[in-house]
Amino acid sequence: xxxxxxxxxxxxxxxxxxxxxxxxxxxxxxxxxxxxxxxxxxxxxxxxxxxxxxxxxxxxx
Amino acid sequence: xxxxxxxxxxxxxxxxxxxxxxxxxxxxxxxxxxxxxxxxxxxxxxxxxxxxxxxxxxxxxxxxxxxxxxxxxxxxxxxxxxxxxxxxxxxxxxxxxxxxxxxxxxxxxxxxxxxxxxxxxxxxxxxxxxxxxxxxxxxxxxxxxxxxxxxxxxxxxxxxxxxxxxxxxxxxxxxxxxxxxxxxxxxxxxxxxxxxxxxxxxxxxxxxxxxxxxxxxxxxxxxxxxxxxxxxxxxxxxxxxxxxxxxxxxxxxxxxxxxxxxxxxxxxxxxxxxxxxxxxxxxxxxxxxxxxxxxxxxxxxxxxxxxxxxxxxxxxxxxxxxxxxxxxxxxxxxxxxxxxxxxxxxxxxxxxxxxxxxxxxxxxxxxxxxxxxxxx
Lengths: 61, 376
Prior knowledge:
The structure holds 2 protein chains of 2 kinds. Chain A is α+β, with helices and mostly antiparallel strands. Helix content of chain A is 18%, strand content 36%. Chain A contains 1 helix and 3 strands. In chain A, a hairpin with a 6-residue loop joins strand 1 and strand 2. By secondary structure, chain B is mainly beta. The radius of gyration of chain B is 23 Å and the shape is globular. Classes of the chains: A alpha+beta, B mainly beta. Chain A binds chain B through residues 1-5, 12, 14-17, 19, 21-22, 24, 26-37, 39-43, and chain B through 39-41, 51, 53, 92, 176-177, 277-278, 286, 288, 298-307, 325-332, 335, 344, 373-376.
């Protein structure tokens, strides 16, 4: 139950901190930018799919 | 002793309804969405999640001005647009609200002191159906489901669930995570219906016992289902639906979702002016924009946009520079979102330059919006 379809995942880097600050992707057809917060449902699902080997996150430009 | 007074001995008279947007009056995302059923998510009325999977059945979900008189002007309407009479095992369809642990402590769970819970709601349909209402304790993987009958007239259903005591599990976690699901089961395959309905007491979750005995919303394209006035309260009786001001409902919804749309203002500004911090070699502008929030959100939210970055622009030096990337920036935040969130905006167009003031706005587009989603 409750699987989310996530595609086109790519990190964003903050120019001010030079660290990854979010992930842009398409989640169930919705274009979203996901914060790196485990309490965020989109990020939790991204982590789950990465752990399962079904999703890869592209590095930031 | 009146019924309201009986429950008031246990829960406060005001604020006793734990359901948010119970009267379906707030729909920030949309008022009607077609073709649903393949995926789960939040589509129309705030806080109300449509769960579905594996079925070829499809529906239109609408916030409809057809609520029961004296209760609410609005309700959620589900209209079956594609039937599915060949039900595979893993199929299901639910209308659901999720509750964070901070708001569940009044219920107790698993140990002495846990309390009964009463769920009440108004429903009708195009014909007679039997559907299921489930409480699912996510923290301890326990659940209980009660069946209810739907007719062609508005009826109030009142279901009292027993306290979950002395099973050895724990109280709900006192945190911002999903602790409890209130689900209305409208369609399910054998994975969820193949056993014996667990209806008399809480039990460790066995999928086959969660929805046994329900009818299928997807049995015909004639089918529709209406629901509103949902109340979940502590105690053994269903008190009158707690009415609240729209401003109160909106404020509760904002903890989970906030949306600003351009509409008739096709150059709508989103958030504060910012200072471009990097000219990116002269062909791009970049800045971090603080966008005010209506209230503290449950967690750091997901940024939602139209998906067409050209619908947005950076306005600087009296010129429009079409955006190339928008993203949420959690690099500045301490892990909680208070006051505002940060948005990184990149835009093309030379000449903006480091130190230039700019603003993110709609790029002559009525549909451009900025939304943040911290739903469970």
